[in-house]
From TrEMBL:
Compositional bias annotation for Gly residues: 9-21
Name of this chain's protein: CHM4C protein
Any GO CC annotation of this UniProt entry: cytosol
Chain's gene name: Chmp4c
Keyword DNA-binding: no
Subcellular location: Cytoplasm, Cytosol; Late endosome membrane
Length: 227
C-alpha cells in the first residue's frame, strides 16, 4: 500500500484518533511529508522522460517501432508529471490555509488570555472610587497651584509711608546735589587789560603791533649783515 493510500485511510497515530482528530502541527507534518514524496516522484519522472527521449533519438527512423514506444512512455510520464504538479499545488494551498488557521487560532487564544487578564485586573476596581480619587487629585492640584502662586508673589512692605512725601524728599535731595555741583564750578578770570570799546580801534592796535614786529625783524637782519 502506498503512502498516499495510508494517509487517506487513516494512517494517523492512536493518540490522534483518541483526541478526535490530528492537531494542526500533526496535519502540517503529514502535508510536508506528502510534498516531499511527490517532489521525489517528480525527479524520478523527469529522469525517465530524459531517458526515453534518448532512446527515441538513438533508434530514430532506423528502428521506428522502438522509437515510437519510447515516445509513448515519455508521454505517459509527462502526463503523470503534470498530475503531480497539480496535486502539489493543491497540497501547498491546503498547507498554507492550515498554517493561517493555526496562526489565527493562536492569535485568538492569546487575545482571550489578555481579555481574561484585563478582567481580573479590573475586578477590584470601583468606578465610583476612581471618580472620587480623580476629584481629590484635582482638588489637591488646585491647592498646590494656589500655594505656588502665593509663594511666588513678592511681599509688599512700607505701605504705611506716603508716596507724595517720599517724592518731595527725593526732589529735595536732587536739588541739594545740584547746588553742590554749582558751587564747585570755577569761572574763568577776567582779563586785566581793558579791551577797546570799538572794533576799528582794536584792528588798528593789531596792525600796529604787527608792524612793530616786522620792523624789529628787519633791524635784526641788518645788524646781522653789518657784522
Amino acid at each position: 500500500m502506498s503512502k498516499i493510500s495510508k494517509f487517506f485511510k487513516g494512517g494517523g497515530s492512536s493518540a490522534s484518533k483518541g483526541r478526535g482528530g490530528p492537531s494542526p502541527q500533526e496535519a502540517l507534518a503529514r502535508l510536508r511529508e506528502t510534498e516531499e514524496m511527490l517532489s521525489k516522484k517528480q525527479e524520478y519522472l523527469e529522469t525517465r522522460i530524459e531517458r526515453e527521449l534518448a532512446v527515441a533519438r538513438q533508434h530514430g527512423t532506423k528502428n521506428k517501432r522502438a522509437a515510437l514506444q519510447a515516445l509513448k512512455r515519455k508521454k505517459r510520464y509527462e502526463k503523470q508529471l503534470n498530475q503531480i504538479d497539480g496535486t502539489l499545488s493543491t497540497i501547498e494551498f491546503q498547507r498554507e490555509a492550515l498554517e493561517n488557521s493555526h496562526t489565527n487560532t493562536e492569535v485568538l487564544k492569546n487575545m482571550g488570555y489578555a481579555a481574561q487578564a484585563m478582567k481580573k485586573v479590573h475586578e477590584n476596581m470601583d468606578l465610583n472610587k476612581i471618580d472620587d480619587l480623580m476629584q481629590d487629585i484635582t482638588e489637591q492640584q488646585d491647592v498646590a497651584q494656589e500655594i505656588s502662586e502665593a509663594i511666588s508673589n513678592r511681599a509688599i512692605f512700607g505701605d504705611e509711608f506716603d508716596e507724595d512725601e517720599l517724592m518731595a524728599e527725593l526732589e529735595e535731595l536732587e536739588q541739594e546735589e545740584l547746588n553742590k555741583g554749582m558751587r564747585d564750578v570755577r569761572l574763568p578770570s577776567v582779563p586785566s587789560t581793558s579791551l577797546p570799546s570799538r572794533p576799528g580801534k582794536l584792528l588798528a592796535i593789531l596792525l600796529s603791533t604787527r608792524k612793530r614786529a616786522e620792523d624789529e625783524d628787519e633791524m635784526k637782519k641788518l645788524a646781522a649783515w653789518a657784522s
